[in-house]
Design a protein that fits this description.
Elements: H1 3-23, E1 38-44, E2 47-49, E3 52-55, E4 60-65, E5 74-75, E6 90-94, E7 99-104, E8 112-117
Parallel strand pairs: 1-4, 3-8
Antiparallel strand pairs: 1-2, 4-6, 5-7, 7-8
C-alpha cells in the first residue's frame, strides 16, 4: 500500500464506521419526522364522522364533503371557518394549541362535531 492509499484509507475508515452505525439506527429525532399528523373527517348524510376526533398539537384535520349538498365547517369559537364546500371538496385546518374545538355546519346548525387537541 502506498503512502497516499494509506492516508485515504485512514480518512475513509471513520466515515464508513459512522455511516454503517447510522444505517442500523432506530432513533428518530424531531427533525427527521414529517411535520404533520393528519386526521380525516367525512361529511355525509348530514353528519360529521367521526363526530369526535382526538389529535396531537400540530396535526392537520381535513374535512371532505361526501354529501350531495353543500356544507361548511365552522368553529363555535371563531378559530376556523370554511367556505361552503360542495360534493368532494375539502377544508383543512392545522391545530397549533391544545384544547377542545367544537364546530358545526353553518348551513345545517344541527350538524356538530368536536376536535380534541392534546
Amino acid at each position: 500500500m502506498t503512502r497516499h492509499n494509506a492516508w485515504f484509507v485512514g480518512l475513509l475508515a471513520p466515515v464508513m464506521i459512522a455511516v454503517l452505525g447510522l444505517a442500523g439506527s432506530t432513533t428518530v429525532t424531531a427533525a427527521d419526522q414529517s411535520s404533520g399528523v393528519a386526521a380525516e373527517v367525512k361529511i355525509d348524510n348530514f353528519s360529521f364522522g367521526p363526530q369526535t376526533v382526538t389529535v396531537p398539537v400540530g396535526a392537520t384535520v381535513t374535512w371532505t364533503n361526501r354529501d350531495d349538498i353543500p356544507h361548511t365547517v365552522v368553529s363555535t369559537e371563531g378559530v376556523f371557518k370554511s367556505k361552503v364546500r360542495d360534493t368532494d371538496e375539502t377544508f383543512s385546518y392545522t391545530f397549533t394549541k391544545a384544547g377542545t374545538y367544537p364546530y358545526f355546519c353553518s348551513v345545517h346548525p344541527k350538524m356538530t362535531g368536536t376536535i380534541v387537541v392534546k
